[in-house]
Design a protein that fits this description.
This protein is of the alpha+beta class. It has a single domain, classed as Thiol Ester Dehydrase, Chain A (Roll), CATH 3.10.129. It contains four helices and six strands; from the N terminus they run αααββαββββ. The chain is globular and about 50 Å long.
């Protein structure tokens, strides 16, 4: 994401594309092109705001496990995508981030479309070299939380 950050922020790109038919799908495709690993899941970034991102993932054969539920690693991928968009949309351009660790809980059988909400709060002032935590709750279509992730990110100032 560093290449696009100099031209346009993730937040402003998402906001601009809302005026275009299929803008969410277009934004998601651009994000997946910049971070190709996320092409492995059928995801759609639904909303982007500083400190909060929502994304959904369809329950398709490609993310299904041998039990017929959404695979654990597909849920991790959804959580990491939501975290990455949240970090890009929330951190000022003066800072950068890198994932440091992930703790997950599988709370219920994941069936149907999964809806992830990533939340990130920034301390003020934002120090250089600090671990921040992004909370990601994943719910099914009924609103039941089926998965929870806490992703630690290492945040530092960009060098000039």
């Amino acid at each position: 994401m560093a290449g696009i950050q100099d031209r346009v922020s993730v937040l402003s790109l998402f906001q601009r594309l809302q005026a275009v038919p299929g803008g969410k799908r277009l934004f998601t495709g651009i994000f997946q092109r910049l971070a190709p690993y996320f092409r492995s899941i059928p995801v759609l970034v639904e909303s982007v705001e500083p400190g909060c991102v929502t994304a959904s993932m369809r329950h398709t054969r490609g993310v299904r496990n041998h039990l017929g539920t959404v695979h654990a690693i597909a849920l991790c991928n959804l959580a990491e995508l939501a975290m990455g968009v949240a970090a890009e949309a929330t951190l000022p351009k003066s800072h950068r981030w890198i994932p440091k660790g992930m703790t997950v809980q599988y709370l219920a059988k994941a069936r149907g479309t999964m809806h992830a909400t990533a939340s990130l709060s920034l301390p003020q002032p934002l120090p250089d070299g600090e671990t921040l935590h992004v909370d990601i709750a994943v719910r099914d279509d009924r609103g039941e939380m089926v998965f929870h992730a806490d992703i630690a990110i290492w945040v530092t100032r960009r060098s000039s």
